[in-house]
Design a protein that fits this description.
Layout lengths: L4 H21 L4 E15 L2 E8 L15 E8 L20
Parallel strand pairs: 1-3
Antiparallel strand pairs: 1-2
């Protein structure tokens, strides 16, 4: 009972696809975000005060990413002062350009 060449080719393709397709499916995507930093009057609990907002929101918008994704985040500061943004739960590749 021999194994035909057709069966060997099928087996080879199956094994190859088992390794290649998951890499393609789980490969990260590039996600783009634009953040516009502005001072805006915000009313909370019947009190209005000037607050720093990101895209008109406080707190700022959520960033969605999966492991392997690449994030390109453009931040434009329209406030006259320097602004610090605190990035929580991010791992940065400082060598990436």
């Amino acid at each position: 009972m021999g194994v035909s060449n057709h069966s060997l080719v099928f087996l080879f393709c199956f094994v190859l696809c088992s390794f290649v397709i998951p890499e393609l499916v789980f490969a990260g995507v590039t996600r783009h975000y634009n953040f516009e930093i502005r001072l805006q009057n915000v009313t909370r609990l019947c009190h209005t005060k000037s607050m720093v907002t990101v895209n008109g929101k406080f707190p700022g918008p959520r960033i969605f990413a999966r492991e392997g994704d690449r994030l390109l985040i453009k931040v434009v500061n329209h406030v006259s002062n320097n602004i610090s943004i605190h990035w929580y739960n991010f791992v940065f590749d400082i060598h990436s350009h």
